[in-house]
Amino acid sequence: MTAFIDEYRDRSTVEFICATLNKEREGGFLSSRGYRDAKTRAPSARQVRDRELVKLVREIHAENYGVYGVRKMWHALRRLGVIIGREQTRRIMAPAGVAGKRKGKNPVTTRKGKGVDTRPDLVQRDFTTKGPNQLWVADITYARTAKGFVYAAFVTDVFSRRIVGWALSGSMKTEALPLQALNQAIWNAKSTAGLIHHSDHGSQYVSLTYHQHLVDAGIVESTGSVGDSYDNALAENVNGSYKNEIIHTRRWADVLEVEIATFEWVNWWNTKRLHQALDYRTPAEVETDYWQQHQLSATTTNRVNAQEANPDHFSARQPRPTADGHDRCRSS
């Protein structure tokens, strides 16, 4: 109520405003003395903390393309060591004036190929894998600029949600767009043998050139049913996030401007953005954890195999007690 009085005190006196409020509200409201006491009273510890949190929430929101809602903001604060509940986060976001962004409908960029597409659906809407470089999803979207349309192609790893390849062009031709994204993904991968590449029935993805690059890399092709976006839902989700989090936030002058912004967004998506599907971790963190565990498991397996192959060598190095009570390793 002090904020209400602050807003109107330049039009009437504090005494008049308080008297009017007390008259219109049964049981009284606020006296002029109470108002002045409230204005001079030192802020409480909660008020001080709330002000600090409001500032921090605004910074986090701005650094993450203004897209974080309550849940992601809550996890972002906790990752910074802030002890806070989800409902308290919701309360703080209100005075901070920030909120999450909802995704709009995705544009149609699929141009079906003229020939018969015989590729099977090896995914069946099951977008889960046990590790990186086992299943990639690919799709194309677009952005409108002052000089015409710009098309973007993304290749995303299903396990980590990392965008492993992307390209931007003023043309949707295979060589100019999706093939560039695919080549980038293949170049960055540790291995592609047996990997599944899932896409829609777009003419760019059924072209002979694209097919040959997949074959040369040992990648298996897969596609969903015609006209059903759910069969490539993860790729559609990436496109939707791209449009919602960056493209629809401003007007674009040309391809170069969009390309620079896309580069920054992809880097943020891979290294900083918290993904609900990853238990509010980043793709980079998920992949790092996987490869560390994979390396540890491989090291342990190699040691066990070596012990089984040379039992005498390892048993000879086991420590044995000595007369002075200390352990001493036998020399082999």
Automatic annotation (TrEMBL):
Chain segments carrying region Disordered: 98-119, 308-332
Pfam families, sorted: HTH_21, rve, rve_2
PROSITE patterns, sorted: INTEGRASE (PS50994)
Family annotation (InterPro entries): HTH-like_dom, Integrase_cat-core, RNaseH-like_sf, RNaseH_sf, Transpos_IS3, Transposase_IS3/IS150/IS904
GO-annotated biological processes: DNA integration
GO MF term set: nucleic acid binding
Superkingdom of origin organism: Bacteria
UniProt function note: Involved in the transposition of the insertion sequence.
Protein's name in the database: Integrase core domain protein
Organism annotation: Propionibacterium acidifaciens F0233
Lineage summary: Bacteria, Bacillati, Actinomycetota, Actinomycetes, Propionibacteriales
